[in-house]
Fold this sequence. Notes:
The chain is mainly alpha-helical. It contains 5 helices and 2 strands. Strands 1-2 form a two-stranded antiparallel sheet.
Amino acid sequence: MEFEDHAYTYTTYDKVNTMEFTYKLSPKETEDFVKLRVSNNFLFSGKRNTSMWAWRAILKHMGLQKKMTHCQAAKKWENLKKKYKELKNPPEGVKVFPEMWPYFTLMDDAMEGRLEGSAIILKPLSNNQDNDFLPVIKPKRKKASMAMPSPTPVVAGLREIEVSLNGDEDDEVTQEGSQKIERIMEEVDDDRVMIESERRVMEREKQVMEREKQVLQRERAVLDREIAALDRDRASLERERATIEREKAVMERERSMLEKDREALNRERLALEREKARLERLNESKERTEEVREDGCEMTDSKVMDRRERFLKLFEKLIEHF
């Protein structure tokens, strides 16, 4: 969507001094400036002086009628559109960074019609309010005369040529020069704003990188401490493993000794079992011998008693005979 300012007809309002001071809009004022221009596009009808009074209405609403002229406002708008078009549609092979220009998104919304109705609708101003605005400085008319000597002495005297640099031609040259200077100043200001924006972005990125560097340094210190702790734990584990290996070797030796002791116990048990069997056999033979002895003793005692009884009987008989 294009928002064209209709060309002014040559009037005294369009004559701007090339040394005229240009007020610099703040970012907030620039945003309001663009929104008011888009929302009040109907005021720029193309009729005589409508563009002038439309810009004056916008400047008065913003309170800038004593700081900017309608010509400067129109030039500001043209410079914004030119900068937007250069970034939106750059020449082939040229790399641009639209996001570095702080007004690219604003102008993109304006050119695409997304800002229509975003600002108050203004009423046209009357022609009798001319004193409320910053006056437009009229350039001085210049008059120059040149005396040109005749190239040959054949023509007597001098030929005088008078060139008048006034009227419409003077106004056109002055306006064109003023517009060029305004455009250059706007471009310089926009470039400076872009450079400042880039510098602030770089400063923020530098600060972010510094913070990330500090975070990385702290994390590296933490990692170094953790690595040192892991090294200590690994050394401790190595010592414990060595201790376990030594204990394992001792247990292997003790197990081999226990195996030997077990074999010795088995041998002793076998010897004891054999001794037990031998003793049992001896005991059995002894018991049999004792039984035999007891039987023999009983037979001997009976014989002795018999003999004693016979002896007693014989002794009694002898006593009886005597």
